[in-house]
Amino acid sequence: MFEITRRHFLSKLSTGIGGAALASMLPQRLSGASALGEKLIADHAPKAKRVIYLFMSGGPSHMDLFDYKPKLNELNGQQLPAEVRRGQRLTGMSGNQASLPLAGSQFKFAQHGKSGAWVSEILPYTAKVVDDLCFVKSLWTEAINHDPAMTFFQTGSQIAGRPSLGSWVTYGLGSANENLPGFVVLVTKKPTDQPLASRLWGTGFMDSRYQGVRFSSGKDAVFYLSDPDGVCRSGRRALLDKLSTLNKIDFKNELDPEIETRISQYEMAFRMQTSVPEVTDIGGEPQSIKDLYGPDAQQPGTFAANCLLARRLAESGVRYIQLYHPGWDQHGNLPNAIRNQAKETDQGCAALITDLKQRGMLEDTLVVWGGEFGRTAYSQGALTANNYGRDHHPRCFTAWMAGGGVKPGMSYGATDDYGYNIVDPDGQAIDPSKEKFTPGAVHVHDFHATILNQLGIDHTRLTHTFQGRRFRLTDVHGHVVKDLLA
Description:
Layout: H1 6-13, H2 17-25, E1 50-56, H3 70-74, H4 82-85, E2 109-112, E3 117-120, H5 124-127, E4 133-140, H6 146-155, H7 165-173, E5 183-187, E6 213-215, H8 233-254, H9 257-280, H10 287-293, H11 303-315, E7 320-325, H12 334-358, E8 365-370, E9 374-375, E10 392-393, E11 397-402, E12 410-412, E13 442-443, H13 444-454, E14 464-466, E15 469-471
Parallel strand pairs: 1-7, 1-8, 4-12, 4-13, 5-6, 5-7
Antiparallel strand pairs: 2-3, 4-11, 8-11, 9-10, 14-15
């Protein structure tokens, strides 16, 4: 005996006058979804209509990109002081080192824009748009290894199995284009020893209709979307109609919501046969836009090409667009490796901001850049005159946001002279782990709460019931960081 679902119950009632009367009396919000559909009515006026999240997988080194630390350079080669480390946990990769020599950045920094933001020389394009960026230099997480740390940032939990951030957004707000998925994933095509699991954009215990759809860089952007040879569109339509009839019979017997999802996804795939080729074809973009994103944008699967595609998807009504760029895990050979990573991503990031801004889209598009944690101030392995590596560091790191109602041209939070601890306004190192919300420090849950807030969602009210418990993206934590908001 299957338990009848709320959706099935309401669909039966809503066919008559009594159902309409009942619908008018029901509250507009039930576990994050309205009574007559899956869209969440915003708690307050949204500043952003969509999100483009640029995830730098591997943990970018904050003190080599945005968090300028001249004293670290002065102390290069000296040992990490015990009063700076403060007994913090180290990974097994450097925890047994006899020496923890401080490694100053080998890159020059300069201030840019009216905001005077410090940016490394390896990010010349990003340096040009700093007045549109809101830097968060005091992010922190409890996770010290890649998989739990990435899972945390993508799902709000270190333990796999929860819905992804993009799934929560599309569950709450739905899609703005019925011919495209509400949640699209783009992964830079490049060799990497750090694979990205599809569960990072999965729905966990939610209905699978909210799962991210990965677009590839091959001939077919979505696998198995094209009809096989010999199958015409009218034949496909007739097949789907028959299949829908059978699935509806199956649903009437089983009352399984996933059967309804199956029906809707077959229909979405049919519509996507036309919509996906249109949105992924950049041939019609003016040369000025192609030049803005750079020569890499002409190569499908590059980060720059994905940034251009992200703008096209946003323009077409896709609610949540997730880009992944792997390769930021630099335990050794950091100077050369991070320079290459910056070269692959710098122009695309800046072009995306510029492109959105000149189209009037930046004001209602929230762009987010960041990784799963930062890197250590000390060198992992040997420190030489022109080479060093950095281990994982969860206690403080940098991300940036742009558009979508966040304050442009500002830096929030600060770290000590070593880039090792978050400091309070008086410059004193603080331990944010002792209290979930410490002014000046931004935890993963705070970061998520702020993103949802800009979309018009109260993170405490967007919930999904599973196995008798009401879950939410921020679990039982999280505060909106109002100082970041315009």
